[in-house]
Amino acid sequence: MSANARIAVMYAHDKLSDVVAEQCFNEMFPRKHVVVQESDESCIIFCVLRKLGIMSPNGAINLDVYRKRVQVAHQLDRRNLVSDFGNSCLETAEATQHKQDVCKKAKVFNDCTHLYRILLK
Description:
By secondary structure, this protein is mainly α. Helix content is 50%, strand content 8%. The protein has a single domain (5-120), classed as Recoverin, domain 1 (Orthogonal Bundle), CATH 1.10.238. It is built from five helices and two strands, in the order βαααααβ. Strands 1-2 form a two-stranded antiparallel ribbon. α1 (15-28) crosses α2 and α2 (41-51) crosses α5 (102-113).
């Protein structure tokens, strides 16, 4: 699939996330027409989480920063409320057999929290 990627907050559209995702996508794929594999999604998610401060370069997850991003999302769209503050998702990501792979750890955490999604356009 030849595409550009956009990332958006699952709860509401967030311009900062789009800008950061575009930066990550351009860093990972400097050529305009590339074949984006589904397997690339985890590293795009890691890049975004890292640039937003939710995840460190070595894979440590900062729940305080995550919670602030969730609060921003709720301010943008109050229809979707999250009862999990990231604790169980952090435990899930830490327990994964891929925890040494920061991209896969980021994907596990993101899949659990449902904070971001990749949209190919």
